[in-house]
Amino acid sequence: MLTVMMGTMAMATCAQEQPGEPGARLPVILSTDCGTEIDDQWQVIYLAISPEIDALGFIGNHARNGLTGTKAWETILDVLENRLEMTDHPPVLAGSDGPIAAPDRPNDNEGVRFLIEQSKRFSPAERLNVLIIGSHTDVASAILTDPTIVQRIRVIMMGMVGWPKGDDEWNVKNDPDAARVVFESGVPLVVGCSEVCIRDLSFTTEECQALVGGIGPCGAWLAKCFAEFGGRIDYRGRKVWPIWDCIAGAYLVGFAQVTEYHRPTLGPDLLFDHATPQGQMTWVTRVDTERFWADYTAKLKAWTATKTGRP
Ligand SMILES: [Ca+2]
């Protein structure tokens, strides 16, 4: 198809290529509907314990199954303080309790203000990574409040079903107007879609138990929570469930392959409209499953060892 041909293949073995000091850590703020399901918690953990990541803050926001910004805030704190037993952790802020009221009406909350303030020491040459693994509400609100932020951040989002159709099942659907603000703002944008998550980031319940179940209390907790969702998708004869949101962190740290596509607009039904593209975007086509989970579990083991004294 024309839309596919317009893309150029690119490998992102090292996804983040920002200037700065050699070995500088990757600055990140996470916008998450943590608690709406089980996967955000995995992503919070990965960002919090990865030595190469400088997690500047976590912002919790809403989802249409009743999750509020405050409830997501509580869930993030539970992950950091109770599951990881972190006594010193990055700031956690409550974001929006619901969608923006209109495409030109940003929400105002401590999460939005924090994001804008933190972005101010970044630049087009050295951008703050903003990961969206929930609705776009708070990031869109930041863009509407301070449009210059698009010169200082890049967005890495989990959402949309696949290319070239677009469509969405959760994150974008929770605030379509906000997603349009982000897409149309011109901000550098990386998209990790659900089709890739199902193919590359899914486990059976048994596989999840084998991967993390033995890694201390935190790993056991992840496996126990997963078992409540495991098996809900039948993928090529395997009863699985994806850790959807980890696609954002996997890309950030360099465990993804990508393609560059034109940036379509989001139609009223959230299908992509390719008639009037607005610049480019980066599309994750594959996650290196084995390398990513090896990295994840090595980091969780190392962190657990600092708490228990045992590997
Ligand atoms: Ca999520």
Overview of the molecule:
It is built from eleven helices and 14 strands. By secondary structure, the protein is of the alpha/beta class. The strands form three sheets. A nine-stranded mixed sheet has the order 1-11-14-7-6-5-2-3-4, with helices on both faces. The N and C termini lie far apart (50 Å). Helix content is 36%, strand content 22%. The protein has a single domain (24-201, 243-304), classed as Inosine-uridine Nucleoside N-ribohydrolase, Chain A (Alpha-Beta Complex), CATH 3.90.245. Bound molecules: calcium ion.
CATH architecture: Alpha-Beta Complex
Unreliable stretches: 1-19
Task: Kindly report the average pLDDT value.
Answer: 92
**The CATH topology:** Inosine-uridine Nucleoside N-ribohydrolase, Chain A
CATH class, please?
A: Alpha Beta
Helix content: 25-40%
Tell me the number of structural domains. Answer: 1
* SS-derived structural category: alpha/beta
How is the largest sheet built, in terms of strand order? 1-11-14-7-6-5-2-3-4
CA(first)-CA(last) distance: 50 Å
Shape: globular
Q: What does the radius of gyration come to?
A: 18 Å
DSSP summary: helix tally: 11
Number of DSSP strand runs: 14
Describe the sheet with the most strands: 9 strands, mixed
Provide a quick synopsis of the model.
With 311 residues, the chain is α/β, with parallel strands linked by helices. Helices cover 36% and strands 22% of the residues. It has one domain: Ribonucleoside hydrolase-like (Inosine-uridine Nucleoside N-ribohydrolase, Chain A, Alpha-Beta Complex), CATH 3.90.245.
